[in-house]
Every structure is written in C-alpha cells, then in structure tokens.
Write a structure and sequence with these properties.
Length: 86
C-alpha cells in the first residue's frame, strides 16, 4: 500500500496532536487531581473530536479516523477522571 504525501502529513499531524493529550492523561492518572481542568473544556473537546471522527469515517480518511479515535479515547478518559475526581 502506497501512501500519498498528504496521508503522511495527516498521520504526522494526528500523531503530534494526539500525543499532546498523553501527558495530561498520565498526570491525572497518577495525581488523581483534575481541579485545574475545566469540565466545559473536557465535554466540548470530546464532542468536537467525536464529530471529527464521524467526519473522517464519512470521508474514509484513515489519518483522521486513526488520530481522532485515539484522541477521543484519551479525552474520554480525562472526562471520566474529571467527573470522578472532582
């Protein structure tokens, strides 16, 4: 399977933006503190990423589907911790 340069760019952007959520999720898991995270931010980011995921599915865009699937999982985890560790 040969990748177009736009797909490589899409996967690279997806990796960078998705990995940016990992330090926050790990910090929350270790400290059990979410006081500085806005509940509105967590909810709106989950909704937005979920919409991007649906858009990627509609367009059959693998970089978008992959990045937003992983981002949604991390953001959903952050939202769950935010609700649990108030």
């Amino acid at each position: 399977m040969e990748f177009a340069s736009s797909e490589v760019l899409g996967f690279t952007a997806g990796i960078v933006t998705t990995l940016s959520l990992l330090p926050q999720a790990l910090k929350i898991m270790t400290t059990r503190r979410t006081r500085d995270i806005s509940l509105l931010w967590a909810i709106s980011m989950n909704i937005g990423i979920l919409l991007w995921l649906f858009y990627g599915i509609a367009k059959n865009d693998m970089p978008m589907i992959t990045a937003n699937s992983i981002s949604f999982a991390l953001l959903f985890l952050i939202l769950i911790f935010k609700l649990r560790f108030r």
